[in-house]
């Protein structure tokens, strides 16, 4: 009888160690999974600015819509690698308005993009654009946000900080802006990135390079990732 108690006593201790080791292994496996997929379970909407009949800004023979699409597709790739589910407002050269919707075509396009964003109920929304202005000396990536939620500023600060660090060619800061329709309408934490100026010849030469587009996309994705991983919010 005593021997039997001893046997079961030993078994319980052994099983205890085995299950403890199992739990430890499970925890470390789960942590390593999170390390590789820090955005698992996150839904992100990415908007490639303009498209179709709306070419956006122009510099030389380059149209904004073509570069925003490539960068947005690269951002999708990087975010998916980190485990996010990514929804694009467009994935080819098109906009969301009806073909023959004269007059208020642009308005219909934007309204439909805003509907898509809010119906998706994303954890974050990022819109990708390029700039062109009559002052050819201006250059540098810049992130904008609507001041209605403090989360918008936080997301923009992370993205701008990552662009600054990785591209090494912008001293611009995350800036509040109130009149951008999609930022105003989005119910999710949102930011709009002006990746660079097509009106600056030097920056335009970079913006048409696939490597630079990927670098910019990786920076935007890194900013989004840092926003979700409880890192200390960078300063302006
Ligand atoms: Zn634009």
Automatic annotation (TrEMBL):
Keyword annotations of the record: Hydrolase
Gene: cwlD
Top-level EC class as recorded in UniProt: hydrolase
EC number: 3.5.1.28
Gene Ontology molecular functions: N-acetylmuramoyl-L-alanine amidase activity
InterPro entries: MurNAc-LAA_cat (IPR002508), N-acetylmuramoyl_amidase_3 (IPR050695), Spore_CwlD (IPR014234)
Species annotation: Sporolactobacillus shoreicorticis
Domain MurNAc-LAA: 114-225
Pfam families linked: Amidase_3
Protein name: N-acetylmuramoyl-L-alanine amidase CwlD
